[in-house]
């Protein structure tokens, strides 16, 4: 007579454990989907910045190429991208090369 009560209790505990496991697994899946999307965005941005770097003409070009490639190989793409963007692209403008020359005066 006590066996059916024990069976119900065990089933309730197992169901709670299964629900908790599913919730934790769902959280991990959502985390990895978001992580994958952020990684994809930084990878695409990295490619855009490499193209930008190849079009620019400035003295530290090879240094920045090394920084971007090592950032990719070591897993710090996000850091290399942000450094290059704020230290080169923002400073020199999006047109590439050095600052635009002043217009010539005609008289």
Q: How would you sum up this structure, described in words?
A:
- The chain is an all-alpha fold and 107 residues long.
- It has one domain (3-92).
- Helices cover 78% and strands 0% of the residues.
- It is built from three helices and no strands.
- The chain has helices spanning 3-55, 61-74, 77-92.
- α1 (3-55) runs antiparallel to α2 (61-74) and α2 packs antiparallel against α3.
- It is rod-shaped and about 85 Å long.
- The relative contact order is 0.09.
- The mean pLDDT is 82.
Which labels suit this protein?
107 residues, mainly alpha, rod-shaped
Topology of this structure?
Blueprint: H1 3-55, H2 61-74, H3 77-92
Q: What ranges have pLDDT less than 50 throughout 5 or more consecutive residues?
A: none
Tell me the count of domains: 1
Helix content: over 70%
Strand residue percentage: under 5%
Assign an overall shape: rod-shaped
- The number of helical segments is 3
**CA distance, first residue to last residue:** 111 Å
Order of helices and strands: HHH
Q: Outline the biggest β-sheet.
A: none
Return the structural class: mainly alpha
User: How many runs of DSSP E, i.e. beta strands?
Assistant: 0
Task: Compose a concise summary of this entry.
With 107 residues, this protein is mostly helical. It is built from three helices and no strands. The chain has helices at 3-55, 61-74, 77-92.
